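Hello,

I think I submitted the iron/sulfur cluster job twice by accident. Can you confirm which output corresponds to this input? Input:
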Amino acid sequence: MANDAVKSEHLLQVQELKKYYPVRGGFLRRKVGDVKAVDNISLELKRGETFGLVGESGCGKSTAGRTITRLFKPTAGKIFFEGRDITSLRGSELRDLRQDIQMVFQDPFASLNPKMMVGSIVSEPLINYGKGSESKLKEEVMNLLSRVGLPEDAYYKYPHEFSGGQRQRIGIARALALKPKLIVADEPVSALDVSVQSQVLNLLKELQQEFNLTLLFIAHDLSVVKHMSDRIGVMYLGNLVEVADAQDIYADPKHPYTQALISAIPQPDPRNKSKRIILSGDVPSPQNPPTGCPFHPRCPKAMPECSDKKPQLREVNRDHRVSCLLYE
Ligand code: SF4
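Support: Only one job matched these inputs. Its output is below.
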């Protein structure tokens, strides 16, 4: 019974998830290696929370999001949604799952069919899944468009007639149409002007409350994630290196990579200025990751053993997990 109670707190559980892409070479195009885009991540999402997944471009966070939603097939590991193993779902079972898990993409223009009117774009998922009667469909879509802050006549317009922020609102309305339980938002504001970003973020926050949503919020910008998230996971080179409550991670970052990311956030009050940690070198290729700790070639605190031994994600404080040999 106790175990069941713990399970039901989590909407999503990801265990040792891997997503590798084969690298082929030579005349016969034989497999010569793997790009380890996601290399063994484990995390849980509590019902109703926002989990921010953050890291530099190319760290594997978008691949992780798409693998968790089962847009990509995992190479290894397990994904549980509401306690059910969804790792290997296919066909109609996978199609049914899509009603509960939806995505909002970075580039709203690329993800909206330019030849369809907005009314059709938003009603398409409802029609595909046979939801709502025909007579009520238009009313329902109108309500959704109004809820995301679009004007009434948006129904009859095409995506190119809207600004970037409005197009993202269309994408959000479409994602909400089936009343999903989980939304994976992959860099939903990074293609938008800074002035519009906060409006879209505030809308997402309001909708989360109203629709009782759980959000996996993927971003490269820690300051954006901070305002959205209850908990944060930091990714580096396909690995989760730190997971904690948002407040803890900003107040007391443990991993040297997180410390460097946080030191780079501009401070509005110059008196709070802490010394910026500049990392040397570039992120190594996920095709040929370093041995030992994946961060060791760039880590200002690296020790001799860091190049041999791979640290595990361990709890160092309550609900604060870190993958670093300094804490083992
Ligand atoms: Fe740095 Fe070593 Fe910790 Fe890796 S394990 S983050 S290299 S101190």
